[in-house]
From TrEMBL:
Belongs to the DNA mismatch repair MutS family. Signal peptide: none annotated. Gene3D superfamilies: 1.10.1420.10, DNA repair protein MutS, domain I, MutS, connector domain, P-loop containing nucleotide triphosphate hydrolases. Pfam families: MutS_I (PF01624), MutS_II (PF05188), MutS_III (PF05192), MutS_IV (PF05190), MutS_V (PF00488). This is DNA mismatch repair protein MutS. It comes from Natronorubrum aibiense.
Length: 877
């Protein structure tokens, strides 16, 4: 391949010089990919491949127009590729190309609205804080460092930020356990950046250079965290996206202050995406009333990273309450905010040198939003007394005003989007520029009046003065008068009805105009660069103001949703008690006539076993509780009549995980690894939601695992837990474990018709109604009838068991509620003997055998029933 010459040859030699997966090389107005890269890109993005011949061979070639590169890059990076970009530049003898940046998931500079996207590095050290992590969001310049006590903690931090790209440090790369977990749980590209950049001394030096020694020393994080930060800086510089300049501030992040909410739970609660993978109907989409993209990002961030600090949450609540109670001012605030542009992005464009005059005008306009906001807030005594006033006062208002004035004094009212053509500045900004413009105007005026003067002075008729590319400025005289022109006229062209002339004076003026225009273009460009630099210098201020506007926007959004949906302010405290009166599910209530429900959890009653018929609302009830706690820890009001919420340190959920089947792991495996994660990570301050644990395996195994997990959560972890189950055996747990209580979602059955009441009541459910749902779902009648028989028999057996006797037809093993164990058959000789073949209706038998390959003669009734339940589940899907 490297035999190739010309641009193909150039492509391959550039490609060899980079470790990126793909190279996009500028060729005129296109970025081209050649060879295998062209094929890859065409496979991934459906680009047309043509052939380019070079040195007698032909090479696949695919190209994208210059202006379209960013979306293509984004799509490639999302698919996990690192793409090098080579730009073409002019040289004295033609042009040359060089790689200007390598785009990776964490460093792709978003030019469109996007969520914060973090680039993370994890470093394993030794000593008291053995792990260190750094997170950088290249779009807003946010840089955070943190220590982690162990691998679990490190993973929790990664969940929290959900980075798009992770750089594991040298030790972490050989730590198969941690690396495996990162691969499995964090949906990020892994990049093995050069080992030396993680070296503690070098890394610490890099970080100090970037952020200043004093700031870094104040961070008080361990060496590994600084190594991680240094490696990120080094990596960002190497990939050459130029974002380093926008990294102006570094902060230590203290994980303890955030609620742990792993990626699984974010998905299960449909916080920003629904189970189907889109945002429609997510919690965020439902409650989002923000006016600006930065406000939207902020609200999303709050939902993804709820807080644990009571004082932080109470401050947010206070602002929300004040805003909710002042609809008119809130409207005004939202109106003002709608004028704001995304300052974090504009700051980043200014530091990259890619901001144009309109961008600076947007900066100017957005800085003007701040005093308007302050004024609106001051106009209402309650708002003025709320923390909102302090939020608006946080940025350096004076500096913001000065910068705004600088821009207002400089920029033209409607500057063009190009920065080299002039027209960017207003009169009075620069003396030299004014002089140039004045002189330019004078000369133009001289030219505009020239025709009249010539007519008058020389008695000519039909005279015009104009300019074109070839002739420059000229005096055009009609044919009839052309012979009478004065001597100093020099003819330059003869046309059919006229002649064109120039004069020395006209030529002088023309040269002057060109000189003036060129100088004006240069001068304006220089002035513009200075102005842009002035804005870039204030990047931190712009980020501050941007953050303030985003925060006010997010708070106003929470207030709007609360006011429009009758949400209430929850009473927050550090204790154990969680009491929600008449709670609703924030998303479901939007589309359904919702039946509100209560929940009460406290020290004595910390674990609810939730039973109820299929489709009765168990999952909705549990998710509703989780969403309400989550919203409360965002600082939001909640959908309830009243709520008292003891703050939690983490929300953990385990619900059906069918979508992961596609990734090659069995449902049961996924279920168990999620369960294991919860049992390891949850604490007594956590909220745990378990929906149907143990269903993915044989009934006995399932019940046993669910039983043991409950005991462990109850006795060891002591987390607040809601556990929905179809295993009625588990309702017996309440008898043995003091903090376990049963609740059920009620249904009404009359004459075989089941009505779902959606009301949660104390106590276990008496029946599952699963067979009723199977019937509704269209399971063949013989199977439904037979399940009823089997169920009936099981109930009888249970009743006899309870009385200490043996059933006429014992099952192979019996679950003993008091011991939580399975026992062998009640009568020694009865085990395994089953009703004879004839008693099973032949149609049912056929279905059982054909669909499931079950030997109906030897399968215990419990398992037959569970098969029927599995069918229901499948049919429902
Ligand atoms: N309180 C409620 N008010 C109104 N509708 C509700 C309520 N709770 C649940 N629903 C609706 O009932 C349907 C079933 O709810 P859900 O999925 O929670 O049932 P489930 O008991 O978990 O079912 P399964 O056991 O089959 O998984 C959903 O469409 C939901 O929107």
């Amino acid at each position: 391949m490297t035999e190739a010459t010309g641009i193909v040859g150039e492509f391959f030699s550039l490609k060899e010089s980079t470790d990126a997966d793909l190279l996009a090389m500028q060729c005129g107005d296109f970025y081209e990919f050649f060879g295998e890269d062209a094929e890859t890109v065409s496979d991934e993005l459906d680009l047309k491949v043509s052939q380019k011949s070079s040195h007698g061979s032909s090479y696949p070639m695919a190209g994208v127009p210059l202006a379209d590169l960013t979306p293509y890059l984004k799509a490639l990076v999302e698919r996990g590729y690192r793409v090098a970009v080579a730009d073409q530049y002019e040289t004295d003898d033609g042009h040359a190309r060089e790689i200007v940046r390598v785009v990776t998931p964490g460093t792709l500079l978003e030019t469109t609205d996007a969520d914060a996207q973090y680039l993370a590095a994890v470093v394993e050290g030794s000593g008291s804080d053995p792990y260190g992590l750094a997170f950088a969001d290249v779009t807003t310049g946010r840089f955070l460092v943190t220590d982690a006590a162990d691998a679990d903690d490190a993973l929790t931090e990664l969940y929290r930020f959900d980075p798009v790209e992770v750089l594991p440090g040298p030790e972490t790369r050989t730590d198969d356990d941690l690396l495996g977990l990162i691969r499995e749980r964090i949906d990020a590209a892994l990049t093995l950046h050069e080992t030396e950049s993680f070296a503690p001394k070098r890394a610490a030096h890099t970080v100090r250079e970037q952020f200043g020694r004093e700031t870094v020393d104040r961070l008080s994080v361990g060496e590994p965290a600084l190594s991680a930060a240094g490696a990120i800086l080094d990596y960002v510089e190497e990939t050459g996206t130029g974002v380093l300049a926008s990294m102006t501030r570094i902060q230590a992040h203290h994980g303890d202050d955030h609620v742990t909410l792993d990626a699984t739970t974010q998905r299960n609660l449909e916080i920003t995406e629904t189970m189907h993978g889109d945002g429609d109907g997510s919690l965020f989409e439902t409650i989002d009333h923000t006016e600006t993209s930065a406000g939207g990002r902020r609200l999303k961030e709050w939902l993804q990273r709820p807080r644990r600090s009571l004082s932080v949450l109470e401050r947010r609540q206070e602002s929300v309450a004040a805003l909710a109670g002042a609809p008119l001012v809130r409207d005004e605030i939202q109106d003002v905010l709608s004028e704001a542009y995304d300052l974090a992005r504009l700051a980043s464009k200014a530091t990259h040198g890619s901001a144009d005059a309109r961008d600076l005008l947007s900066v100017q306009d957005t800085l003007g939003v701040l005093p308007d906001l302050a004024e609106a807030i001051d106009s209402n005594p309650e708002l003025a007394a709320s923390p909102l006033a302090a939020i608006v006062d946080q940025p350096d208002r004076e500096a913001a005003r000065d910068l705004r004035e600088t821009l207002a004094d400089a920029l033209a009212e409607e500057p063009p989007s190009t920065v080299t053509q002039g027209g960017l500045f207003q009169y009075g900004y620069d003396e030299e520029l004014d002089g140039l413009i004045e002189r330019h105007d004078e000369v133009i005026e001289w030219l505009e009046t020239l025709a009249d003067r010539e007519k008058r002075q020389h008695g000519l008729s039909h005279v015009t003065v104009d300019r074109n590319k070839t002739d420059g400025y000229y005096i055009q005289v009609g044919k009839s008068a052309a012979d009478g022109v004065p001597d100093h006229y020099e003819q330059i062209k003869t046309l059919k009805n006229s002649k064109r002339f120039t004069t020395d004076e006209l030529e002088d003026r023309e040269r002057e105009i060109l000189r003036l225009e060129e100088r004006r273009g240069d001068l304006e460009y220089e002035l513009f660069e200075d102005l842009r630099e002035e804005v870039a210098v204030h990047a931190e201020l712009l980020q501050d103001v941007g953050r303030t506007l985003a925060t006010v926007d997010a708070l106003a959004s929470l207030a709007t949703h609360a006011a429009e949906n009758r949400w209430v302010k929850p009473d927050l405290h550090g204790g154990d008690r969680l009491e929600i009166e008449q709670g609703r599910h924030p998303v479901v209530e939007q589309t359904t006539e919702f039946v509100p429900n209560d929940v009460q959890l406290d020290e004595e009653r910390g674990f609810l076993v939730v039973t109820g018929p299929n489709m009765s609302g168990k999952s909705t009830y549990m998710r509703q509780v989780a969403c309400i706690v989550l919203l409360a820890q965002v600082g939001s009001f909640v959908p309830a009549r009243e709520a008292e919420i003891g703050l939690v340190d983490g929300i953990f959920t385990r619900v059906g995980a069918l979508d992961e089947l596609a990734q090659g792991r069995s449902t049961f495996m996924v279920e168990m690894s999620e369960l294991s994660n919860i049992l390891h990570t949850a604490t007594e301050e956590s909220l745990v939601i378990l929906d149907e644990v143990g269903r993915g395996t044989a009934t006995y195994d399932g019940i046993s695992i669910a039983w043991a997990a409950t005991e462990y959560l109850h006795n060891e972890v002591q987390a607040k837990t809601l556990f929905a189950t179809h295993y009625h055996e588990l309702t017996g747990l309440a008898e043995n474990l003091p903090r376990v209580a049963n609740v059920h979602v009620a249904a009404d059955e009359r004459d075989g018709d089941v009505t779902f009441l959606r009301t949660v009541r104390d106590g276990p459910t008496d029946r599952s109604y699963g067979i009723h749902v199977a019937d509704l779902a269209g399971v063949p009648e013989p199977v439904v009838d037979r399940s009823r028989d089997v169920l009936e028999r099981l109930r009888e057996e249970k009743a006899i068991e309870a009385k200490g006797g043996a059933s006429s037809e014992p099952v192979q093993a019996v679950f003993d509620v008091s011991s939580g164990q399975f026992r062998g058959p009640a009568s020694a000789d009865g085990g395994g003997s089953r009703e004879d073949d004839e008693s099973i209706d032949p149609e049912t038998k056929a279905v059982l055998e054909e669909l499931e390959g079950i030997d109906v003669n030897t399968t215990p009734p419990v398992e037959l029933l569970s098969k029927v339940q599995e069918w229901q589940a499948q049919l429902r899907e």
